[in-house]
Amino acid sequence: MNPAGPLSLNTITVKPWSLPQVIEACARHGIPGISPWRDVLQAMGVDNAARRIRDAGLHVTGLCRGGMFPAADAAGRAAAIEDNRRAIAEAHAIGADCLVMVCGGLPEGSKDLPGARDMVREGLHAILPEARAAGVTIALEPLHPMTCADRSVLSTLGQALDLCDELGEGTGVAVDVYHVWWDPDLERQMARAKGRIAGFHVCDWKVPTTDLVFDRGLPGEGVIDIPAIRAMAEAAGWGGGVEVEILSNRWWAEDPETVVREVTSRHAYC
Amino acid sequence: MNPAGPLSLNTITVKPWSLPQVIEACARHGIPGISPWRDVLQAMGVDNAARRIRDAGLHVTGLCRGGMFPAADAAGRAAAIEDNRRAIAEAHAIGADCLVMVCGGLPEGSKDLPGARDMVREGLHAILPEARAAGVTIALEPLHPMTCADRSVLSTLGQALDLCDELGEGTGVAVDVYHVWWDPDLERQMARAKGRIAGFHVCDWKVPTTDLVFDRGLPGEGVIDIPAIRAMAEAAGWGGGVEVEILSNRWWAEDPETVVREVTSRHAYC
């Protein structure tokens, strides 16, 4: 067993592939875990995917993603909540460990950051009963502060844990090293996350980074001390291994088979 | 008087210009403050610049920049400290309100973030006696977390204030709305900064942002609620107005005269 624990392949890492192709690749490369994005899951058909993932014996470490609650008007916010309800059903259908939440940025044209944060809180409160009923853990993922305007007003692990405190049972955090590695308060907050880590994602911060979203590195390509953060997670009770989630124009341009080989060979850097 | 208080022009906002040109532009446009970067200051000659700035009646809101302490070896760290000593002398010579500190990122090839933070602390301790003797306030500027790897391991206002607590007299913080606007702990930390704000810088966060360093917007071009953050600064005792510091490939490509007109007309957005 790799010291980093079992590997899980997030489907966006091999974006050119359909979900059936990712499932086959996991079997072919001995990768025991998978984490699909909803677009490829829906393209395959949720029931079909659930059966094939189960037949392949794959562990579903998460479903990406719910969230995106803030919207400029009430209809938009209601639509987001409805969509999150569907995401909960999908996560339940495929037996995902959690539904990963990318909470959303500022509504179009807004500068009201406290208001957007309130919309996130309200959205989470609205969907929590369904999530609990379905046994789907809501995993709040703090996203790097550089995504605050357009992707996530939830920016730090401390903020995510405050929300978990407020929401209670059925919630946890998804820790992605890319989003939290810079945080001067990380060690303290990771300890505070004890028993509440619902997902652990890895990739790397490249120097230089040339795009705010699509220039992540494979583990070992950048400057994040991934094993140090994994050790914090394990000290907080995490034993679920590492999910490799790489959003990268550079790697998406490669043959996905090459990318999967790189991912498995770089498991040791996690 | 503009409600945002007096305006100061940071020389990098009009990067194509020499310091004499910026000094003339301030007079021409009725801008009472200036904040030079060291490269243009040295190109003009420090004594000559000091005299011309004084003769023009300009208030020097800061000198950019000291810092950049982490280095891969002891010689590199010693050289950084020496360079900071020269920066202190320059800040004193031009009567700057403060020396703005961009503390530095990870040393080349390093993933040791706690180690880099220690190098920053050691560097600051080393230069503080000279700064105090010269009456130059050391203004710690937390930089956006997206610059952690290569520019500043000092990422949050809270972390900067912790350092001020440790360093004591002669230190303060430079608050740039671009670097802190996303922080869920901002309001609390701004209150904690009471009496310790040594500089207040404005620009804006554009959506989308296409470069991690050189794609800042002029006030009003983006999503930062600048007046809300200025109000927090004023509640914490700040009365020094706003320094406009725009690092932007887009605006650097324009005639600087146009940029200065834009800056003055956008004073109202601050």
Automatic annotation (TrEMBL), chains A, B:
State the superkingdom: Bacteria
Question: Which parts of the sequence belong to the Xylose isomerase-like TIM barrel domain?
Answer: 23-257
Q: Does the keyword GTP-binding apply?
A: no
Which taxonomic lineage is given here? Bacteria, Pseudomonadati, Pseudomonadota, Alphaproteobacteria, Acetobacterales
Single GO MF descriptor = isomerase activity
Does Nucleotide-binding show up as a keyword for this record? no
Query: Mind telling me what this protein is named?
Result: Sugar phosphate isomerase/epimerase
Sorted keywords for this record are: Isomerase
